Amino acid sequence: MSAPTQTPTGPPPYSSWMRYFAPTANHRRLGLVCLGVGLQRGALPVVGPRVLDHHVAVIVTSGRGWFSHGGRPPQRVVGPALLWLMPGVVHHYGPDPAIGWDESFVDFAGRSVEAYTDLGYITPDRPVVPLTETAEVRHIVDGIVRAARRGGPLLDVEAAAAVHGLFVALRYARAEVSRHGDAVMDALARGALLPISVAEHAARLGMPLYALRGAVRRSTGEGVKEYLLGIRLSRAKELLARTDLPVAGVARRVGYEDAAYFSRLFSRRVGVAPGRFREQQSLPSQAGRA
Hints:
Blueprint: E1 15-20, H1 25-28, E2 33-42, E3 47-50, E4 55-69, E5 75-78, E6 81-85, E7 91-95, E8 101-109, H2 112-118, E9 128-130, H3 135-150, H4 155-173, H5 179-190, H6 198-205, H7 209-220, H8 224-242, H9 247-253, H10 259-270, H11 274-281
Helix pairs in contact: 3-4, 5-7, 9-10
C-alpha cells in the first residue's frame, strides 16, 4: 500500500499593488490630498519600525496580526479593523505569517486632517479601531484604485474627494456604533426643535446627562448644544427660504421664544442675518412679496 500523499502547507502567497501621488501646491490648497493607495494580501512582510511625515489609514478586511504604536507593546489585530498611522509616531506591524491578512491603505495629508481629528473621525489615541461591515469602505478604496490606474489630469482632485468619503465610511463602519447609540441620536434629532434644555432632553430620553453628552460626542465629535443648534438652524433656513413666516415665527418653530436671541445665533453661525438670508434665497417670482 502506498503512503498517503502529503499536502504541502505554508504561508499564503503575498501579492501587492500600490500607487503614490505627487499633488501640487494648488492641490494642497484644497485642504486634503491623497498621497497614495495600495492593496495587499497574504503573508505580508513586517512593516517598520518606521516613522512617516503624513497620515495613513490601513484597513485590514480579514485575517489577523499585530500592531505596535508609539513604542508600546504590540496589540492583537483581528480583521476587520482600522490602523491609524500618525505622522511623527513610530509604528511597527505585520500579519500572522501562518494566515496573513487582506489589507488596503490610503496615505493622506492636509490642514483639514486636524478638523477631522477634532471631530473624532481620526483617533490618534485609538490607533487600532475594530470595524464591522467594510463593503462601503472597500468600494471607496477601489474607486481610488480605479482612478489611479486610469490616471489623467483630474486624478489628484478625484482621489482627494474620495478620501473625504473614506473618513465618513470608516466612521459608520466602527464596531462601537451600536443600535442603541443610533436610536439615541435619532430620538434626539426628532426632538431637537423642542424649547427645552439639554438636561431636559436627557430626561426625556431616560438617560443621565453625561451619557447623552458621551453618545453625541462619539457620534458627531461635537457637544449636544452644538449638535442641536445645527439641526435648528438648518430647519430655520428652510422656513426662511420656503415660507413667509416672520423671523419671530421662524424662531418659535425652531425652539426659540426670544427672536432677538435667535437672530444673533443665526447671524453668528450662518454669517448673515435671517432677513438677509431670506432675501438671498428668494426666487424671482417671490420678489416683492411681503
